[in-house]
Amino acid sequence: MEVELLDFWVPVENNKTLFVWNITPDLTESYIQERLHAVFSSFGPLYLVNVRPNAALSTPGFNGIIKFYSAAQARKAQQNMDRRALFHNTPLKVRLSSQKTPHFQSGSRPLSHARCVELANHCLGFNGWTCDIVTLKELPPEDEEEEDKAGGRVRVKLGCVVQISFPRHGVSTRGAAVVEDILSNAGPEMILRKRSSLYKLVRDKAAVQAFSTVVLVLLGEGKVMVELRRSVEHLFPEEPQGLIPVCNRDEVENLPEDEDPWDLEDLDLTVW
């Protein structure tokens, strides 16, 4: 039985990347991308499908890059799809990547929140995991003098701890994040919207940090086990002090005004 490990990190390995070429120029990029995604996603979840025109000095047409989360699924797709006419009369050429990754791209990074949710739902089902807020509160700014309430500028700093659980596997893990932003005097309604979207941002960042510790063990025939990374260095690349700082946020997306799930107690945000 072949066992495959899947984590919630951006795939950068060559054995998870396919190159597709010999695509004729009589099709549009959007159509090619749609068809490639439909064909190759049947082998497993995809991180990336990218279509681009051939180089100027090459034969007119298109080529594509497809990134899987799983090396085994990428290999199976290559073996089954190479030299087949998938959506036009010309057989496609499909190869595993042999291109050396540049050193500045060789280090992987955690998936985005949307990608984490997508991968978890695909492998575990919508009811296979839960995400709960342990702590979510506003933190005092490090420099009180940076606040300019008279001028309408207020620095907002939020901290969050979430717990992601996998009830069927008896496994849970926590993640923490801090975000901050300076809110200008744009009226009470706009400030409320920005503050609400900051709350959503910090929750998502904490969830990403929690997902980054999770490893899915694919056993075949749809069977999945959930394990956790045990390396402290993985969880805390640098020596942590309280919460893990994630990013500063200059612009945030708007959320509905009536979304106010954050009236919580003043809890300790320290993570051990």
Task: Explain this structure.
The chain is α+β, with helices and mostly antiparallel strands and 272 residues long. Helix content is 23%, strand content 31%. It contains 5 helices and 11 strands, in the order E-E-H-E-E-H-E-H-E-E-E-H-E-E-H-E. It has helices at residues 29-40, 71-81, 113-124, 188-211, 232-235, and strands at 4-7, 17-23, 46-53, 62-68, 93-96, 130-139, 154-166, 171-183, 214-220, 223-228, 245-248. Strands 3-4-2-5 form a 4-stranded antiparallel sheet, with helices on one face. Strands 6-7-8-11 form a 4-stranded mixed sheet, covered by helices on one side. A hairpin with an 8-residue loop joins strand 3 (46-53) and strand 4. The longest helix is centred in the last third of the chain and has 24 residues, at 188-211. The chain is globular, with a radius of gyration of 23 Å. Residues 232-272 have low confidence and may be disordered.
